[in-house]
Amino acid sequence: MSQTIQIETVNAEYTDPEAADPLSGQAGRQASTEPLAPQVAMDYTTIVAQCDQILQAQPDAYDAWQEKGSALIHLGHHADAIACFEQAIALQPDSPHAHYSLGWAAYVCGQYEVAIRSCQQVLALDAACHDAACILGQSLYATGQYQAAVETLQQVIHHQPDCLDAWYCQGFALFATGQYEEAIGVLRHVLEVRTDCADAWYCQGFALHATGRHEGAVSHFNHALELRPEYQEALVGRGDALKDLGDHEAAMASYDKALRLQPEDAEVWYRWALCLKQLNRPKDAIVGYDKALKYQPNHGGAWYGRGSAFMKLGDFQNAIASYTKALALNPQSFEAWFNQGVAFKNLGQFEQAVNSYDRALALQPKDHRAWNNRGGVLVSLERYEDAIASYDKVLAINPNDTKAQQNRTALVNLLKRRDAAKN
């Protein structure tokens, strides 16, 4: 299973001028653009005012448009910043720096398609601008182009092995494509540098869980929750890992916390109910299945689980009703047809039971249990020849099935006695 989360890069707020500001980062150095005023010495509002004064006198002052756009980004005025960078591009359309600034601004405000186009333009003008490649990779991830993001960010890491943003986003992109082993290695590197990144702990935990390392997964989810106690996905992930470790009580406790945060999460109610099933608490499990179905009426797994819980309680009528709902959603469920057949048999509705077993066997014709059960129901209907044929099917699949051998022999002898009595 792959799962995607909305990530923020390590430098998402772009507060480190050496790492992220387009006027002082790598792209700025390549364009040889000097900021108009030292940003350390004055606030961004002052910079905007200074740039406005310059632009009133010189509307084609490229550096002023760039500087103003950068300051506006820091002030959170993203649309105005983008407009400034577009003005800069109009003045110097072949400037990698101008396109980079627009791509950076578009990425910050979530205009990922614009960011992709801008960064591709940068790289067409200057293939060595790895800052642009990093933003391109992050934007590809944000638009669901995960494999392209992996490949782009791998090139960034090759040229800039210390670029933590690239490692960080590549780990999530690998995670999103289900390349869990690779994601584990990349995210391990991120966590060696940034131990306070809850999302990285979560993704690493999910990847460990997906590869069967459930104890390690629990540990990573715990780290994520120490940093962000109300991280609902981490609570669910921890519950899943604990469930797979067989610690159903602890799993339920984790799901309980997740449900307090998102009480309408049908899938978590379903998993909560599965834990109760394993704890042999079918009545309580039904409560969980009903909650799941309240919020997601077409949850086939919940209908099936509900049917199985009613079977456990001996309430075959409600079991049949639940299995019928499950089969309406997934008519290819062998287990639901099989169990529905058992429920019909227990209610003495033998014709319906035969029909259910027939549907099950159409899906799995070599299931000896279904043939055995079908034979038993046919005996109840006094269709002895058909029952013998069912037991023959069992023995063709499993010649050592003692029960089928005994039942077949008993039926053959019964038919012999009946024929003898007729004569």
Description:
The chain has 423 residues and is mostly helical. 74% of the residues lie in helices and 0% in strands. It has helices spanning 26-31, 44-57, 62-75, 78-91, 96-108, 112-125, 130-142, 146-159, 164-176, 180-193, 198-210, 214-227, 232-244, 248-261, 266-278, 282-295, 300-312, 316-329, 334-346, 350-363, 368-380, 384-397, 402-422. Helix 5 runs parallel beside helix 7 and helix 7 runs antiparallel to helix 8 (146-159). The termini are far apart. Mean pLDDT is 89; it is low at 1-41.
Spans of 5+ residues with little confidence (pLDDT < 50)? Answer: 1-41
User: Whole-number radius of gyration?
Assistant: 32 Å
Q: What is the number of helices?
A: 23
| Structural class designation | mainly alpha
Give the overall form: elongated
Main beta sheet: strand number and arrangement?
Answer: none
* Residues in helices, as a percent range: over 70%
Give the end-to-end Cα distance, rounded to a whole number of Å.
66 Å
Strand content: under 5%
Indicate the mean pLDDT: 89
SSE order in H/E notation?
HHHHHHHHHHHHHHHHHHHHHHH
Question: How many individual β-strands?
Answer: 0
